[in-house]
Amino acid sequence: MDFSFMSVVWLGTPLWLWASFFALVIAILSFDLGILHKENKEINVAESVKLSAFYIALGLSFGGFVWWYLGAESGLAYMTGFVVEKTLALDNVFVIALIFSFFAVPRIYQHRVLFWGILGVIVLRAIMIGVGATLVAEFSWVLYIFAAFLVFTGIKMLVMKEAEPNVSDNALVRFMRSRFNVTEEHHGERFFVKLVNPKTGKMTWFITPLFMALVMVEVADVIFAVDSVPAIFAITTDPFIVYTSNIFAILGLRALYFALAAMIHRFRYLKPALAVVLIFIGSKIFVADLLGLEKFPAALSLGVTFAIIASGVVWSLVKTKEEQLPA
């Protein structure tokens, strides 16, 4: 069989490299669902930490491969995107916790929602990144719009107090409840269930709160992608680096959730650091132009990004610990 077509370059990267990446992702998800979580069970904090470490190591190892095969600049861009996306995911964890709490999703079924949510994320991010890559390739000035948007978003995060999302007042929740048959209680791990409709007396398909939680998790990711996708394009315009760094950062979100959900309050002061990171990533495109540089140095970009995030994490942990100490 002739596999010469695998050497064809697609979106700037050989097709075999894309195929290898997707094969690896499928293998990881199959291992996760088919072996680690073949049966529904609660994921405790210890298991969550171990799984998180595994996914982080996997993401960093892939970054090492990118560095070795595509060069240091691509490797640094991947690492920067991975770190930024992983940190932005902390906000996502907070919103997911609110969604699970509102729909009273039993802890034993939360992994199921997150797993299928990740599958949706892989497809949705591919679409958003594909559109972004096309726009940047056709209209280079779009990159400056992305950069300005990041600076604006970062400043807004610093100066404005963000209100806690109100899931009960969400338009999508109201729409689903008004247009579809929705059960009030959970039916195990099922997203859909056939029950007698009290209005017609006939057997009818109902959606369960578990499915509504899944829809809300997907929508939350799309909203967060509005920040993260422009951020990674401001780091690199290589579609392969953009997509792989995003997906490897998100793959471990399920495991990370169970470790962070119980201690998300300890990262209360991390948001200002995230805001500064967005401002830095957006502004470095304009700084590079002012200095007459073709690109902002990748090593400096990674170093500054990591330093800001690390400072935010340390400051947050110290401040929240002080608040918990008795007066």
Automatic annotation (TrEMBL):
The chain crosses the membrane at residues 15-36, 48-69, 89-106, 113-135, 141-159, 204-225, 240-260, 272-292, 298-318. Its main location: membrane. The keyword Mitochondrion does not apply. GO terms for cellular component: membrane. It is found in: Membrane. The keyword Transmembrane applies. InterPro entries: Integral_membrane_TerC (IPR005496), Integral_membrane_TerC_rswitch (IPR022369). Belongs to the TerC family. It is a multi-pass membrane protein. This is TerC family protein. NCBIfam families: R_switched_Alx. Pfam families: TerC. Keywords: Membrane, Plasmid, Transmembrane, Transmembrane helix.
